[in-house]
Amino acid sequence: MAQSFNRLVGRAVDNARLGLDIANRTASWTQQQMVDAIRRGLDEISPAPQPAAGRSADPDDDVEPVEQQSDSLNGKLSQLLSRALDQNTRGSQAELYHHLLDQLVADEARILGGLSDGSSSPLVNVYSWRAQGKPVLENASLIGRMANVALPKMTPKYVTHLLALGLVQTGPEDSLLKTEYEVLMAETMVLDAIKAGSKGPLPAKTEKLSLSLSELGHALWAAAIVQEENL
């Protein structure tokens, strides 16, 4: 009787183990199917990029070798040096003048024209009240209105750009322009800058200068005018 009972218990345990094994395999298979389904869905939404015909799938193969990059830069430099050998002084000047003019807007050309007669225009910088304060306003000048630029408020930016190109230059305050300085100091942008740079009884610092064409600016203007007259 006991042996029969033991055999029944043994069979029940074996059946239970078999059931657990089947359940585990089924769960694993189900999980794998779910993962595969998710992957297929992602591929449909955003398929993996395929290499173009004739190109390698390795992204490193599309990187231009350092030697080729160097050759390209060297090639450009060699062309410039070769052209320099073939150019005379006049040709080099013409290339420089064309390059400078290509960087100008119409209002900046008007400013050059306004100074082309050798005159100067008042210029003022406004700094914060602090001893080493940053400029609140730089290169404010009447030259914009004198040259009848389309955007007078952009005059400080125009002058800054022309200074960077070396076409204009600043000098000390011109005592002959006393009235013009008074008009400039009454400009709204200058008054606003002085107010912003002051603190209570401590006033903003103002620096009065003069603006005129540089030697390069005069040469560029003269060359352009002469060429126009010869046309």
What does this structure look like?
Helices cover 60% and strands 12% of the residues. It is elongated, with a radius of gyration of 39 Å. A 4-stranded antiparallel sheet has the order 2-1-4-3, sandwiched between helices. A hairpin with a 7-residue loop joins β1 and β2 (135-141). The model is unreliable at 2-6 (pLDDT under 50). The protein has helices at residues 2-45, 66-86, 89-102, 106-115, 143-146, 155-165, 178-185, 188-197, 215-230, and strands spanning 121-127, 135-141, 168-172, 205-213. It is built from 9 helices and 4 strands; from the N terminus they run ααααββααβααβα. Among the domains are: 1-28; 103-230, Translation Initiation Factor IF3, CATH 3.30.110.190. By secondary structure, the chain is α+β, with helices and mostly antiparallel strands.
Short description:
It contains nine helices and four strands; from the N terminus they run ααααββααβααβα. It has helices at residues 2-45, 66-86, 89-102, 106-115, 143-146, 155-165, 178-185, 188-197, 215-230; strands spanning 121-127, 135-141, 168-172, 205-213.
